[in-house]
Amino acid sequence: MGYEDRDGLELEDLPGIGSATAERLRKAGIKTVKDLACIPARELEEISELAEGRAGEAVRNAREAVFPKVMTAREYLEKRKGIQFLTTGTKNLDLLLCGGLEPGITELIGAYGTGKTQICLQLCLTVQLTRNRGGLDGAAFYIDTEDTFKPERLYPIANALGLEGDQILDRVHVFRAINSDHQFEGLRVAQEYVVEKKANLIIVDSLTAHFRAEYSGRENLVTRQQRLNTFIHQLQRISTMHDAIIVVTNQILDVPEVIPGVKPARPAGGNVVAHGCTFRLWLERSKGMTKVSVIDSPKHPRSSTWVMLSEAGVKDSEVPK
């Protein structure tokens, strides 16, 4: 339920933006009125060299052209009815998510081997399905931070979904991020692919690995969390502007003290990630299967389901006895 530029406005149509300023904005990666509406004025000053007053005015004018000032709850509900859900490829997960994935940030939390990457690979293919099969007839942009993306895994999963041919690989765009700076660059490229390649699914696997490695130690904690917070907010901005579905994987940290009723592990990234992600799913391995639980969501009930990992992808499973 994104927002459209009113009457196809171009940057030059906004008050105070001439052709020279518009060209400067486009070179800075701000190509549409929606891009301009979502960027903070201070950030705009830094990347475009616009003066403080002009930057603030440009952003305000763009927001007025794109975003309604106020909506009633009824109007907002009607707008949400236009959401296109993305199937996960399993009935159990789709039921858990009340129809599938939707725009916003969905976080997959779990230890090694719980199936986070397998779900991401499967989503790279379900997004290519036609809309009447639960897909978006679109493409995926995969930011790989841990060298976990293996394209050969797509073939058996695609066959199980009824997708054939090498063209399935052409609609999955992979960016191998080698450090946190490069990860930010991947996000900038991803936004271009959302517009130009119909990449309406963005995956970051994993979200926190580079930040944890590069900013280790308590003395770097503040800087790490600030950088991570900036990255997540940029993800949120892309999702809002383009109705993009964002999926991130996250590692877990062991908790030394075992507290009754509390998991002996917690997601990496602390409150920054917890507040930044819209839907949070916890994955656990048990008896050869994976239990998926909703641990935080503004709309989903806190419940669980079971899936199994196979050569053909992530499949439904019964509750283990």
TrEMBL record:
Q: Which Pfam families match?
A: IMS_HHH_1 (PF21999), Rad51 (PF08423)
Q: Where does the record place the RecA family profile domain?
A: 82-252
One MF annotation (Gene Ontology) recorded for this entry = ATP-dependent DNA damage sensor activity
Q: Which PROSITE patterns match?
A: RECA_2
Name the source's superkingdom: Archaea
A biological process (GO) of this protein is: DNA recombination
What keyword terms does UniProt attach to this protein? Answer: ATP-binding, DNA damage, DNA recombination, DNA-binding, Nucleotide-binding
Q: Which NCBIfam families match?
A: PRK04301.1
Please state which protein family the record places this protein in.
Belongs to the eukaryotic RecA-like protein family.
- State the function annotated in the UniProt record: Involved in DNA repair and in homologous recombination. Binds and assemble on single-stranded DNA to form a nucleoprotein filament. Hydrolyzes ATP in a ssDNA-dependent manner and promotes DNA strand exchange between homologous DNA molecules.
- Supply the name of the protein: DNA repair and recombination protein RadA
